[in-house]
Amino acid sequence: MSKQQMIANLISTAPENKLDIILSFVEFVLRESTDLDNMLLSEPSLSADWMLEEENVAWKDL
Q1: Does this model's pTM top 0.70?
Q2: Contact 14, 22 (CB under 8 A)
Q3: What is the largest CA-CA distance in the chain?
Q4: What is the C-alpha separation between 28 and 50, in angstroms, rounded?
Q5: Residues 6+ apart with CB under 8 A from 27
Q6: What are the percentages of helix, strand and coil residues in the chain, rounded to 5?
Q7: DSSP 8-state symbol, 55
Q8: What confidence score (pLDDT) does residue 35 get?
Q9: Which pLDDT tens digits describe the chain residue by residue (62 residues)?
């Protein structure tokens, strides 16, 4: 089995909630790394916290 097939098999079994992180990582690896890329790579994992109601309450007065 080729490495590409192995990767495809692993991704096909990944839970839906991990696919944004996997996609970001693959895009990052396939492009030249920059500071902007590093920032965008963390966005999917941080967005889980950003979307919480507690965050909205904490930041509502800013």
Answers
A1: no
A2: yes
A3: 55
A4: 22
A5: none
A6: 75, 0, 25
A7: H
A8: 65
A9: 899 999 999 999 999 999 999 998 888 788 766 666 667 767 777 777 777 788 778 888 87
